Structures are given as C-alpha cells and as structure tokens.
Amino acid sequence: MHASRTFRITMTAVAVIVSLLFLAPVLWLVASTFRTATETFANSSPVGWSTLWPQHWTTVNLSSAIDNGFLRSLGNSIVVAGVTVVVGLAISAMAAYALAVIPFRGRSAVFTIVVLSFLVSFEAIAIPLSQSFSDWGLSNSLVALILPGLGNGLVVFTLRQFFLGVPPSLAEAAKLDGAGPFRTFWSVYLPLTKPALIGAGLILFLFQWQAYLWPLLIISHSSLDLAPVTISKAFGGFSTDYGRVFAETAILAVIPAGVLLALQRYFVTSVASTGSKE
Amino acid sequence: MAGSTIVWGLALRPDGPVNGVLDLFGLPAQPWFTSPHQVVLSMIILASWIGIGYWMMFLIAGLNDVPPVYYEAARLDGAGPIRQFFSVTIPMLRRPLLFVLVADTVSNFVLFAPVQILTDGGPNGKSDFLMFDIFHQSYELSNPYQASVELLFLLVLMIAIVAVQFRLLRTDDGEE
C-alpha cells in the first residue's frame, strides 16, 4: 500500500512537470499578447516570473491585430472550417456507413482507395491539384478552400471502425421494426457513435484550421487569406510588429483550445461502453 | 501549425526565453534556427511539440476503449502499475500506436510551414526539406520540371511507406 502511494505521488509530480513544459510556451504566448514586444524580449533572459507575467498590461497588440484586418481572415477561417465540419461529416458518415454495413460489389476496392487517400499526405498532391483547380477557374474562392477538406479518408476510416463496433443485433431489430437503411443509419448508428462523430468533426476542423500550404497555393487575394497565412505574412514583413503577431497567434490558438475543452467530456465515453448491455 | 511555428520561432530566437532557461542552468545561449548545425534539431523540437498534442488525441481515444475489466483481472493476478502498462495497455493500444507511428512519419515527411515561415530552407540549405524544395522550385525559381521530378520521388517514397503500413493494418484486421 505504501509503495503504491509513493508511486502515485512520483507519477503525479512527473505529470505536473511534463504538463508545465507543454504549458510554458502557451503561457508565454498569452503573456506576450498583453505586453509590448520590447518588454517581451527584455524579460526573456534571464527568465523569471516576469517572463510569463506582463509587468505593464496593454491591449495595444490586440487593437493592432484588429486594425490590420485580422478579424476578416479569422472570419474566413471560421467559415471554411465550419462548412467543412458540417458538410464533411455528412459525406464521411454516409460513406463510412456504406462501407461498414451495406454489402455492395467492389466495396473492398473502394475501402482500399479511401485508406490510401489518407495515408498519402494531402501536401504531396497539393501542388498539382492547385494547378487543376486554377484550370477549372476555382482559384481565389472559399469553395476552393473548402473542397479538399470535405472528403477526409481518415474520418471515413475511423467512423467505419466505430460503425463496425455497433452490435448487428441492433440493426436487425431496427430492420424487423420496418426501418430502411437510411432510417437505421439515422436512428441507430449515429446516436450510438456520438463520441466518434465528435472526434471525426474535430479532425475535419483541425485539418482546415491549420491548413497552410493549400491556402498559400490557391489564394492570391489577401481579402480571402486564412488566419495562419495572414499571421505568417505579418511575421515575414519588413518591419515585423511582433506584438501583433503574438496577439494574432493567441487568437488563432484560443479557438481550437476552447472547442477541445468544450468537447473533452465526450471523449470519455465511447462506443465500447454504449449500446448492447450484454 | 503556423501559430506554433511562430511561437517557437520567437522562443528559440537567440535573445528568446529558451536561451533564458539555458542561462538559468548556466548553459551558453544557442543559435537554434540561425545555425546550419542546429536548424534540423530545432525543426525536430518544433515538430515534436506540435505533433505530441495532435497524435495524443488518437491514443487517448484508444486508451478509453481498453475495457477496465482487463486492468481488474491484471490487478487480481498481482500485476503492479508498470506490469499492467506493458502487459495490458501496450498490447491493447497496438493498432492506434501503429497508426500514429506511420501517420506521424508520413506527415513530417511533408513538413512545410515551419521551413517556409522560419528559415526559407537555410541557413546554407540545411533545412531545405523535400516539400519546401518542391514549392520553392516550382513557384520561386520557375523550375517546374525539376519540381515535378521531386514530387514524383516524394510520392514514390510515400507509397512505399504506405504499402508497409497497409500490410500491418491488414494483418491487424485479420485478427479481429
């Protein structure tokens, strides 16, 4: 009993130290958002509490970000990610359902293609694909930004795994009650795999939220720039306003962090603990 | 990706807080991204910090799927926490671990944003990674044919990795 207690204390200490290591850059980012860039770098070395805690609080960086049109880029990012989550989830869930439940000719061939599509990174095909997109007259549009995020092989693959985990007896019961394939999908499979669907939505969201190469290739009007591209342009400019860069990066980071925190409790339960209570 | 890149790019500046921490332990300041000898190491630190959070999501999902009865059974058989980790957790996490291993490898093969934002392939071309070079050749040096050849190499490399991964996932599927 005593050994287990020491073990637990040691493990907790290790966990706290590791999470602090991961938290430190985030705290530094937040602190640097609310102070001038001069103060940030003056307090970098030697490190102390003043490195992670502003001495003179200011919102000048936030207003500089807003004055430079960052909210428009942020709006573009939110629209692109939002549409991708909703439409992409619908497409991927239906595809995964067909691949898991409905037997049809060539199903394993389709599944193989889906798996291949996510194992080869999107970046590897982005450059030739962007040339096709401009041939089709799609460049410089929100549609061009959204389209590559919709059919996500990883999401189809994950959802299929979860659909396969739903006990077939439930689908049979629905069938006996007269439900067609779509009704079974909607009323049996989707409610039972809610945590998986939320996880899948998160993958779709993060794909678009962190997209960088594709927007760089396909967008040349700065009014359509996504937030990461705007930040990197501000960072690479001739006279970089580092305070503004910190503020924009903090805003870019706080949104997925908020989404993750809000959805965290759904990750606790999963398909393994729902449905059939045998 | 771009956000974390910039935070780390600034944190690893010669006058940044990482060198401040080194100073705390009496270590000399390092040049990080500005040195041809350290730029790859700096990229690895950056990519790892970004990757750990993202790929951990998949492992947490896998951990939640391990039925608690296995741990109870192991405890009844007298297995301590370390033994439980190696005899229950690791085998039960085989599939997500495998997936993360390969997917993380493949995604870092096409590491692009940190190079484009922070180093432009430098110093001395030491961080001129494949994906950045393809972009650089086709858009900044107007060298589309060389870029195409490089892209072909990248795709072949990826398909080779994927073929191995596919094998592993396949045999895994068979076990179920």
UniProtKB/TrEMBL annotation, chain A:
Membrane topology: Multi-pass membrane protein
Keyword presence, Transport: yes
Pfam family, one: BPD_transp_1
Keywords assigned: Cell membrane, Membrane, Transmembrane, Transmembrane helix, Transport
Entry similarity comment: Belongs to the binding-protein-dependent transport system permease family.
Family annotation (PANTHER family): ABC TRANSPORTER PERMEASE PROTEIN MG189-RELATED-RELATED, SN-GLYCEROL-3-PHOSPHATE TRANSPORT SYSTEM PERMEASE PROTEIN UGPE
Protein known as: Lactose ABC transporter permease
Organism encoding this protein: Luteimicrobium album
Automatic annotation (TrEMBL), chain B:
Major localization class: membrane
Keywords: Cell membrane, Membrane, Transmembrane, Transmembrane helix, Transport
Pfam families membership: BPD_transp_1 (PF00528)
CDD domains with a match to the protein in the record: TM_PBP2
Matches recorded under InterPro entries: ABC_transporter_permease, MetI-like, MetI-like_sf
Domain of life, per lineage: Bacteria
Domain ABC transmembrane type-1: 1-170
Transmembrane regions: 39-61, 97-118, 151-169
Entry-linked PROSITE patterns: ABC_TM1
Membrane topology designation: Multi-pass membrane protein
Protein localization: Cell membrane
PANTHER family to which the protein is assigned, alphabetical: ABC TRANSPORTER PERMEASE PROTEIN (PTHR30193), INNER MEMBRANE ABC TRANSPORTER PERMEASE PROTEIN YCJO (PTHR30193:SF37)
Protein family (similarity comment): Belongs to the binding-protein-dependent transport system permease family.
Name of the molecule in the record: ABC transmembrane type-1 domain-containing protein
Organism annotation: Luteimicrobium album
